[in-house]
Amino acid sequence: MKRSKVFTTMAATAVAAMSLAACGGGGGGGGAAEEPAAAGGGEGAEGAVDVSDAETLFKLAFNQTEQHPQYIAAEQLGQDLYEATDGRYAIEVYANEELGTQADVVQNLSDGTVEMMYIGGPVMESFNEDFIVFNLPYMFDSQEAQAEVFADQDVVGDLYTSVEESKNITVLAGLHAGVRNVYNSKRAITEPADLEGLKIRVQQSDSQVAMIEAMGAVASPMGQGEVYSALQTGALDGAENNETVFDALKHSEVAKFYSYTRHLMIPDYLLINTGVLEDMPEEDREAFLELIPGAVEEANEGFVTFAEESRARSEEIGAEFNDDVDVEAFEESVADLVESSINNDVRQELFDAVQAANEANAG
């Protein structure tokens, strides 16, 4: 199978994906695949199909819980694939890092010992730095704009296949992974000056350090497992993430001021081993690819509800959510970082496509 055959099929389903993905919510940034998510959400579909006797059972690695909407969507995708291929193919989802950390699993994916996985957007930068465009602050104005870009194979097709030769990995889809905002133990944040002097945890990334410092805070890069105790002892004043992580990791107990800076909408990606995809008979491969937009829609819609439930649980224990934020001032503070990162033709084209989608989905 040639690469173009896969993405011809995917392009044929892109219009459906764009119309399906126009779900509620919006604004901001996420990155759910970096850390575990909150309990809550829903269970798998009633009357679930037993896929264990499929002729070929793909393993899909996930580093979050069975309640996460991406897990639920992947479970349904596996059942739908089983039915669409008359039992020849199905997917079994392994949650809670059962197959290893993302760093371990992505190597196994490349080797083909794991067939599929979800991965956080920043990790893809290590394979192709052009993925940074979708991880920059204030890139997407809405979830709808993000979904439109990710469903357009004319925009993302080359990027999604760009690590096939080097890593034997194909990106099947980009997914909404929430809205990243600032929270801390001191005060509500309304403008960049309010962050002055606050030690805010960020991911261990040079661009993330530059971003939070440009926004006015003192950057404190560290692993997620250290954050709760650092907040509790005062070694950290706050962090930045979406509502699901704020709730799941109980940061709402020790940093109750959550302010909607809406500075990031980092996606997650659904990956598959390229060789595995190529080896599927054409009829089964096309059936599989035609199921992807529906799985994306289910996961994206589920994430909106998941975030709302996470906020409600946090509010029940006293967390305060502040939407009186001068987002334009924060966006202006990181404008130089964004401009300096759009430094080649590929990134410029991706950036222009995002701006077009933002405009088309404005209001």
TrEMBL record:
GO terms for molecular function: carbohydrate binding. InterPro entries: DctP_fam, TRAP_DctP, TRAP_DctP_sf. Keywords: Signal. This is C4-dicarboxylate ABC transporter substrate-binding protein. NCBIfam families: dctP (TIGR00787), TRAP_S1 (NF037995). It comes from Cellulomonas aerilata. It holds the Pfam family DctP. Residues 1-21 form the signal peptide. The keyword Cytoplasm does not apply. GO terms for biological process: transmembrane transport. GO terms for cellular component: outer membrane-bounded periplasmic space. The keyword Oxidoreductase does not apply.
